[in-house]
Design brief:
The chain is an alpha/beta fold and about 425 residues long. The chain folds into two domains: about 170 residues, Acetylglutamate kinase-like (Carbamate kinase, 3-Layer(aba) Sandwich); about 170 residues, VC0802-like (2-Layer Sandwich). The chain is about 35% helix and about 25% strand.
Length: about 425
């Protein structure tokens, strides 16, 4: 029996298919991979900034558009890109077929604009691959069991790609973007950022969750769970990118990366009755509205009342405030205030597990720049601080220099010679 070619999933972001020239470039790359002996499943985002353009259009006709209709609208962006890419591939002499998320059986829950994948049937994809076709799938979208179109949230095409890799039984997933890998900081914000040859799932997950825009955090979770190796690379050159694997750490590197997230807002509930169960009531009510909460700080009670502060996505601040004000009235708390001029800066690294003093070093660096810290959150391999947004660039540069990340090549050589 003839052995089937191995399957590889290749995901291309919006910048990779922003115009006809780039679509043709992507088509040539996919065809080249096919002719090297692979079966290719390509996952594609909407063209360029078309998702943002569609969102802007929606808000022109309705200041608070229904989530279901947002999904109906945004899902059209990927349908345009997959059809055009399939046409471009056919022009190069290979057979290709494009599908929406629903057509390949990506079944999700009912949470519009941030749905979670429940199941994928890969039968239709496998059937077309057996015919030696290149399969092009719309990223970012799925369908509920009762045939409602949903989208998977910002960066959802990453999740589509990783989930499809699992569904078709491959551990190879390439993520093509407009930068050639994962850097110690966003190279658009820090000119001395260095590219990491490898990074662990845990580090990539923390960086993604704290604002690095290279990959969607949920996609990294799925990759880690099923052992799918991610190769993050540029669609504009053939250079090796960054491999995301189980454990990938240079011994001399304590901090692997620094991220800045400007998309959050802070909400504070003042004068909360300091009684058992009150905090549970607050956050249960908020979570029931599918609002994601990140950092939480509660002051020590001295008078029987306390203040509780937490961060939410800035895009959802208005709806979050509506919910929180209702909860505050229910528990007879005081004023509810908000601030949307904040940023979260985080340092991430597996080396933090075995090295002490990282937090002190971070706080000293920020203090030296006269940057006040408003909130702090930690995990085993991450420290995050909320600061004022106007200080974000200065903080990033100071921390990148403090942890010597601009000398990555020297650190790598040091690690190799140990």
């Amino acid at each position: 029996m003839k052995k089937r070619p191995p399957i590889i999933v290749q995901k291309f972001g919006g910048s990779s298919v922003a115009n006809v020239q780039r679509i043709r470039r992507v088509a040539r790359r996919i065809v080249a991979t096919k002719r090297k002996g692979f079966n290719v499943v390509a996952v594609v985002s909407a063209l360029g900034d078309s998702t943002d353009d569609l969102l802007a259009l929606a808000h022109q006709v309705n200041k608070n558009p229904p989530a279901r209709e947002i999904d109906m609208l945004l899902s059209t962006g990927e349908q345009v890109s997959v059809a055009l890419l399939a046409m471009a591939i056919c022009e190069l002499g290979e057979e290709a077929i494009s599908f929406t998320g629903g057509q390949v059986g990506i079944v999700t829950d009912h949470f519009h604009t941030k749905a979670k994948i429940q199941n994928i049937s890969a039968k239709r994809i496998i059937k077309e691959l057996k015919k030696s076709k290149i399969v092009v799938v719309a990223g970012f979208q799925g369908i509920t069991p009762d045939k409602e179109i949903t989208t998977l949230g910002r960066g959802g095409s990453d999740l589509t790609a990783v989930a499809l890799a699992k569904a078709v039984g491959t551990t190879m997933c390439e993520i093509y973007t407009d930068i050639d890998g994962v850097y110690t900081a966003d190279p658009r914000l820090e000119k001395n950022a260095s590219k990491l040859p490898t990074i662990s799932y845990d580090e990539m997950l923390e960086l993604a969750a704290t604002g690095a825009q290279v990959m969607q955090a949920r996609s990294v979770e799925v990759a880690k769970k099923f052992g799918i190796t991610l190769h993050i690379r540029s669609s504009f050159n053939n250079k090796p990118g960054t491999l995301v694997t189980e454990e990938a750490k240079m011994e001399a590197l304590v901090v692997s990366g620094i991220s800045v997230h400007k998309g959050e807002a802070k909400i504070t509930i003042n004068d909360v009755p300091d009684k058992p169960g009150v905090a549970a009531l607050i956050f249960k009510e908020i979570s029931s509205r599918n609002i994601n909460i990140d950092m939480i700080v509660q002051n020590v009670s001295k008078t029987g009342y306390t203040d509780i502060s937490f961060t939410v996505p800035r895009a959802g601040l208005r709806s979050s405030m509506d919910v929180v004000r209702k909860v505050a009235r229910k528990i007879r708390a005081g004023e509810v205030t908000s601030a949307d001029d904040i940023a979260k800066i985080s340092v991430v690294g597996l080396g933090m597990r075995s090295h002490s003093g990282i937090a002190a070093k971070m706080f000293e660096a920020l203090a030296a720049q006269k940057i006040n810290i408003e909130m702090i959150s930690t995990s085993e391999i991450k420290i995050s601080c909320v600061i004022r947004r106007r200080h974000a660039q200065k903080a990033l540069h100071a921390l990148h220099k403090t942890f010597n990340l601009h000398n990555l090549e020297k650190l790598q050589k040091k690690s190799e010679h140990k």
